Amino acid sequence: ADDGSTKRFTCNVVLQPDVDPNDNVKEILKSFKGSLPFVNGKYIVTIEKDEVPIMSFDDDNILGTISMSWGNRSNRYNHVTVKFSNKNKQYREDSISYPDLSSTEYTDLLAEDNGEKLHTESTLSGVTTYQQAHDLAEFMVKSSRVSRVIEFTAQPEAMLLVPNDVITVAS
Questions:
Q1: d(CA 125, CA 119)
Q2: What 3-state class would DSSP assign to 38?
Q3: Which of 29, 84, 100, 127 has its CB surrounded by the most CB atoms within 10 Å?
């Protein structure tokens, strides 16, 4: 029975043994917003999600100056279409776009981008449900719009951080 809940991070993919193993791993990771950083001599699986900051940086533990720049505009989207094999349609190809082109959200994003349509399409082989595809399309739009690069030199305590740790920076 469907209770209205859906598992967010699942992967339903057929991997080919003659494909480069790195490509197979990338396909798996794309299906659940994962990454595989190499930390302290081991690969660890991390999932991009909202978390509480575990370390804060300010004038007391930042050495020197901070430089900040916005992410590359070519990686910014106001509309994303995800193609996937829909298990509810006998695994036939299906697609979902976010946001809906008739929505206020799309109108607002388009206005922020001076009317420029910034659309991309992605095929996710490990995604098999509408809800998971929608979640990933929304994630792709929203994460593309908040990317900033902040560079600074910190006190040695920063050596305890690993990729995908959430921090705060104030200066």
A1: 20
A2: strand
A3: 127
> What pLDDT sits at residue 141?
95
Which residue ranges of the chain lie beneath pLDDT 50? 1-2
Burial 49-86 (b: 16+ CB within 10 A, else e): eeeeeeeebeeeebeeeeeeeeeeeeebbbbbbbbbbb
The size of the chain, in residues, is: 171
Whole-angstrom distance, CA of residue 155 vs CA of residue 74: 33
Q: For residues 149 and 23, what is the distance between their CA atoms, to the nearest angstrom? A: 27
- Give the whole-angstrom CA distance, residue 21 versus residue 86: 25
* Longest CA–CA separation in the chain, Å: 59
**Contact 121/85 with Cβ under 8 angstroms?**
no
Name the H helices within the chain.
Answer: 21-30, 104-112, 130-144
pLDDT tens digits, residue range 43-72?
888 877 778 999 999 999 999 999 988 777
Q: What SS3 state is found at 88?
A: helix
Q: Which two tokens stand for residue 46?
A: 């991390």
- Which residues does residue 19 pair with via DSSP β-bridges, in sequence order? none
From 24, 65, 61, 30, select the one nearest 47 (Cα to Cα): 30
